[in-house]
Amino acid sequence: MGGAIALPALAQNETPAFDSGSEIIVTARRREENILDVPVSVTAISAESIAKLQANDMAGIQGAVPNVNLVQGRGSSSNSNFFIRGIGQPDALQTFDPAVGTYVDGVYFSRIQGALVNLFDVERVEVLRGPQGTLYGKNTIGGAVNIVSRKPSTTDFKAMGSLTYGSYDTWLANGYVSAPLVQDKLALSIAGVYDKRDGTVTDPLTDRKYNDRDTKAGRAILRATPSERVELILSGDYTRQRTAPTLGYGTAPLTNVLYNSAFQVIGVPVVKPAYPYGKYDYKASTSLAPGQGQRLDHWGLSFTANVELNDAVTLTSITGYRKLRPDYYIDFDATELEVADAFVGVHQKQFSQELQLKYDSGPLSGVFGLYYLNETIRSHQEAYDDNYLQVQLAPGVIVPLPFTRYIDDHQNVKSYAAFGQMSYQFTDKLSITAGLRYTKERKRYTRSTTTTLAPTPFLFPASLPAPYNSLDHVDFDAWTPMATLSYKPTRDTLLYATVSKGFKSGGFNGRVNSLGDVTQVVDGVTTIVPFFKPETVWSYEAGAKGSFLGGRVNLSAAAFYSDYKDFQARVGGGATGIAGGSFPVVNAGKLRIWGVEFEASVKPVRNLNLAASVGYLNADYKEFNDGRRAPTFSCNPTGNTITCKPPFAPPMTMRLAADYTIPLGSASLTLGGDMRFVDKQWLSVDNRPGLYEDGYTIANAYVQADFAQGRYYLRGAVKNAFKELYKTDGQEFSSVGNIQTVYYGDPRTWTITAGFRF
């Protein structure tokens, strides 16, 4: 589901902002466990904690979890592209697989489109860092974001709701109700959200607003417990979004291509937008017309059955079906000129089935699973580039060449997996865990590309030379093991060391428009490579976590090292003009990534909560093989400097938070806030100078009054209090008009909320 989070109020005397204490239960290992018993780097964020973060959507956790970077989605209001420990998805297009999996109640979301998930009936969010393959249905090489909805109670009636008004004419209404239909046997919950906000970006040429919000979403969950050993859950959700385009801002001079009457290139002049580039002030122009905005319809059904076969064995079945339809207009050049505008319409549907057999008896426990995913994606794309090409008919007589490219493609993915993980407890303190996964994926892809200037279609793969033109499908498979040694010096402390292998499937380049996009030069030899290979990582981690002073102090720390090979990179550069628009995808080589993470929550006195987190990340390209460039090992094709830093891998992420509650009889007053620092980072794979963020600090604060033992509340809040200007994402299409566009986070905003909870 995409859109906004409608959140419950902050509860009185709640747990710290980032829950690490001995009472926190998570399902990171597919069974309920105390977080202190889980030898995994996991941050558990409760519903109350999300409210403290003032998160209107999943982007609200940006900068709040160490070494986790959430990228905006490159011109989309509903995409969610996570990078964990420097590992993420290299391109937002729907044919590239996420490196970090998003799961809602066990159902995997196979694309980042529409994955800016609503959490209005959330119980908690678990962010797992590092490869997750021996426990989760779909293999994820970088980590997993596990979203757990609130189950309806079969015994108690519950209701909550709120109404928010804020800057940019924000209106946010949400409601949640849970009621038993048959006492102790059957319950239903219904939740809904309405979220609308004017745009934060103004076009100075037309005074129209962009980067707005307009979301309606709902979810219903029916839960049956016919016996103590059987639980059945049926869930359905729907999200509808209708927004204006999401505008970025150009950081490099735009160019176009000038031909003579014989269609020979005679120049590459600079294009001058009417609204010049300068310091960004939430103003940007576009050539998109009114009505050319963004639409999203996303719905899904899931059915989960938990059956205890006996005291030691539980069978779980998770069946999911989802249908996604985003239609986006995107202005890549972010000017009133039509250098590169596009329409992208996607029809996606997926069916998944997962079976888990869980065993827990004596010193032995574990999970065995089978997984199947069948996904079909169709897209229709139109690229409008009428200000990109010009022809000189005579000296001084220059006219534009209207240029439109039409693309239709189809991809089918079938993924199969068998996985298992077992833990053996030698003593009360010492245990070992081992797991193994086998994954096989089959991908089929077809694509047709035509342009108004070159009406002969390019058909992929039929346009490739033999034997590639007979390519029907491509298969990828891998065995990925893991092993962990855990030691508990005390009941509330844990030391662990783990080694695991991660795998992400290869695939087809969803931007291929010509043979040049699938032609690679390796060691001086030109080769047609119609698909890119899988990427793998060996990850090594050691960590510790503990709860002290009766849960008033909670600490966790981890150090990790990752050896990453054959990473998939969508690189820029290449030819320009009619034959241009080159977007190759290469298995560029090797990365070395290491770092440390630390999280703490402290309750020094009864009504004061303090929290802190720090992540340090050192990520480098050790090889970057792209034979079209000289020198070969260069990440900056326009100069001699070799920067070679992976994108979206800030060396430091930090957060400090505090909240204090003042009791006032049957009422209370809570003051809280946090500061988040995200370090400098590149926003493109090949380190384009214009696609760079210098680092930023965001300050947020709130004050909340609770009445009648917390049944009613009134809250005022501010985000980005000091008006920090910061970039969240970048578009690199230098082979089309030298386009290098960045996207900015929200300006300062304020909200006032009134709500209730029973």
List keywords for this structure.
about 750 residues; mainly beta; Maltoporin, Chain A; 22-stranded antiparallel β-barrel; five-stranded mixed beta sheet
Please tell me about this protein's structure.
- It holds the Pfam family TonB_dep_Rec_b-barrel.
- Residues 36-144 form the TonB-dependent receptor plug domain.
- This is TonB-dependent receptor.
- It is found in: Cell outer membrane.
- The protein is mostly beta strands.
- It has one domain: TonB-dependent receptor, beta-barrel domain (Maltoporin, Chain A), CATH 2.40.170.20.
- Helix content is 1%, strand content 56%.
- It contains 1 helix and 47 strands.
- The chain has a 22-stranded antiparallel β-barrel. Strands 3-8-9-6-7 form a 5-stranded mixed sheet.
- Strand 6 and strand 7 form a beta hairpin.
- The two termini are 26 Å apart.
- Mean pLDDT is 87; it is low at 1-22, 575-579 and 636-642.
- Secondary-structure-based class equals mainly beta
- Secondary structure: number of strands: 47
From the N-terminal CA to the C-terminal CA, the straight-line distance is 26 Å
Helicity level: under 10%
Quick synopsis:
Helix content is 1%, strand content 56%. With 758 residues, it is mostly beta strands. The chain has a single domain, classed as Maltoporin, Chain A (Beta Barrel), CATH 2.40.170.20.
